[in-house]
Amino acid sequence: MDTNNNEYQQALMELYAAVLKVLRLSGASVFTEKEKHDEMLANVLALINSCGYSSSTNSSFSASDYLQKETKPEPYKQQPSPAGTPANQPVLLVKNMIGKRYATMAEDDGDGYRFCRTKDRVEEGDNNRFFVLTIYDDGTGTFEMTDDIVGEKRQMLLDSQSTLLASGVVKSTGTISGTCSIVTRTVGEVVKNGKSWHIVKPLEIEFK
Length: 208
Prior knowledge:
The chain is an alpha+beta fold. The protein is built from 5 helices and 11 strands. It starts with 5 loop residues before the first helix and ends with a strand.
């Protein structure tokens, strides 16, 4: 057989192209077992070699190399994230501050501490409100000491610190005195429970 015949070479190349398409499809979905895929590839290579195929002088690749290249699976590519959302980035929930509440002390109900009697403002002459709560629309809040604890109010705190600064309410470092400043290290956290606010994380302060 004259394997250099142009018609023969053209027919062989058409067969070759059809085989490549089959192998691409088989690698993607039809043949899921590697052994079957490799067996088919070997049979195709043997068929092409038995026909006396030889690459033309203008070709820079062999049938074997090209088949291996065409049937090699592509590496996994991560799908792009929706516009404006970084990949693997958690979605942050936004909550809005809706007001302030003021409390004298937190009460121990046997299941932790809670602020039960709070007011939305401090009346004139009402100097026993030691805590201010910042309330959010999702039923949570934070709390800290008010910023007017000086003079007589400072002395009231000093006299009642075992009650006002209970460990389940406030964790403090340093020693309280008439001239020290109160520095907030970490605000406390509360959640709404009926008409009261349950403390889920104590306030951390420092007297310095």
